[in-house]
Amino acid sequence: MKIGELARRTGASPRAIRHYEKAGLLSAGRLFNGYRDFGDEAVAEVKHVVRMIRLGFSLEEIATFPACMFTGGAAVICPVAMQAHRDKLEEIETLIAELEERRDRLLATLKAAAQQSAEHARTASRNQEATGP
């Protein structure tokens, strides 16, 4: 099948599919006119790559997964790749914790700035009242 058909059947863009092929995650033959010719198995492979990207894996990481990861559908994680999934989960949890810390620091900074602005406004108002019109 041509790349446009593969894109239609998977929801991935032709550009993304070319990118996956360049990364070595897909292979295609060539038709006499130079167009890519993907086999039927490419549908499942593209869908798998898209799933892995949505889980946070890079193309480089996906390329290291054993062949068993490309069989069995969405819910199957072959035992060999289980540790990679655990490592990715730990990485994501670390990022979440770091983002929560940043959010807390930013909220504290905004709160302090708001209090400082309010105090400055009160001081300016008192000074204006003291000096009169």
- By CATH reckoning, the class of the largest domain would read Mainly Alpha
Global geometry: elongated
**Helix proportion:** 55-70%
Percentage of β-strand residues = under 5%
Strand neighbour order, sheet with most strands: 1-2
If you consult CATH, what is the topology of the largest domain? Multidrug-efflux Transporter Regulator, Chain: A, Domain 2
> Low-confidence segments, ≥5 residues, pLDDT <50?
none
- Give the C-alpha Rg: 27 Å
Biggest β-sheet, characterized? 2 strands, antiparallel
By DSSP (H or I, 4+ residues per run), the number of helices equals 5
If you had to describe this structure to a student in words, what would you say it looks like?
The protein is mainly alpha-helical and 133 residues long. It contains 5 helices and 2 strands. The chain has helices at 3-10, 14-22, 41-54, 59-64, 82-131, and strands spanning 29-30, 36-37. Strands 1-2 form a two-stranded antiparallel sheet. Strand 1 (29-30) and strand 2 (36-37) form a beta hairpin. The radius of gyration is 27 Å and the shape is elongated. The chain starts with a helix and ends with a helix. The model has no long low-confidence stretch (mean pLDDT 89). This is MerR family transcriptional regulator. Residues 1-68 form the HTH merR-type domain.
